[in-house]
Design brief:
heterodimer, A: alpha+beta, eleven-stranded antiparallel beta sheet, four-stranded antiparallel beta sheet, 4 helices, 15% helix, globular, B: eleven-stranded antiparallel beta sheet, two-stranded antiparallel sheet, 13 strands, 12% helix, 48% strand
Amino acid sequence: MKYEVRYKPAFATLFVTLQPGERIFAEAGAMASMDGQVSMSTGFFGGLIPGLLKAFLGGESLCLNQFANRTNTPQTLVLTQSTIGDIARMELTGNELCLQPGAYIAHSSGIKVQLQWAGFASWFAGEGLFKLKLSGRGLVFFGAYGGLSEVTVRDEFIVDNGHLVAYEPGIKMNIGLSGGIFGSIASGEGFINRLRGRGKIYLQSRSMDGLVRFLRTKLR
Amino acid sequence: MDPQEELIAEAGAMVAMSGFVNVSTTLRKGKGGGVFGGLKRMLGGESLFMSVFRSGNSSAELYLAPKLIGDILPYTLKETELVVQSTGYMASTPGVDIDLGFTGFKSLFSGESLFWLTVSGSGLVLLSAFGGIYEIDVDGEYVVDTGHIVAFERTLDYSISKANKSWAGALFGGEGFVCQFRGHGKVFCQTHNPGSFGRLVGGKLPPR
């Protein structure tokens, strides 16, 4: 599988070439365009029941689309995300990666997608009840609203709520208020995420909640 | 703009211009012109009015910008026809005719804009997009999600259909409707889908 991320970082889009027999899996709605000979089929995200849970409790799509090249010639496919911003990829070689709701775009074959309970603290902070855990060997593509930064956490690191995109499972999340109830409300920082452990994390430079809060005041 | 030049643009696209540029508002003349043409254009998500900028006796500066953040693509028509998604049109030179086409009832289901503009004649058309614009030289068959089409050359045959063969897949697969192109010609696609970004943000906003 050949791929290239073009229009980085503002409008990053994934251009994929599937060789004969290759497949790629993508979030429902991620396909922008493709060659007429690419075969597309729909499956449930991590099985039917987790898919349903994810859709109804996590506010995300129920389905995962599979794109396969069943011809003898290379076929192209363009995948993108709903938000504008950067796209990153991570190659998994037996290690794991957790994705926050909305970050997932696509993965190659060889990757296993599991849905994990994220807990009520996560839901209360607007991060969703579930998170995606990807494991196996292959490529994972995920996106952000705004730019992406990779940070290696060694001990403790604090991230504002809504900016965490992906993290390695060695990291434990502790969601809390940034400084007392009153301070949190007054400063607009709201919830913060206190990350502990060792591993890589990915942050997005903007948050969807920030955009929504801005737009809300403009509505008449 | 050189002296005695004219440019037609979607109403509201002007950002800045030289003080002496003559601006008038028009209901476009030609095939898509008059009150009826204007009303048709309004149905297509475009403004009823167009602005005409004339440089007069000296060369002038004119800055135009689309509403959405993204790229602008200049396309030169040489007695050819280009079909433009109604929100993808930004401006054109006077030799270009703009006509509103109806895509048929099939597109009613797609939830995307119902109207295509057919631009024909000779001259320059400026297209705008949500995100980047990529060009596909179709030779055979190519599939584009209806929310990602900016424009395509009229030499192509197209039909709107479900992305998935099964109805369950079409309903839950999220891809909804796609445009299938056949033949030879260019398709211009936008990297991002305004509809899905709108739904993502709009879903979090309070109802009006």
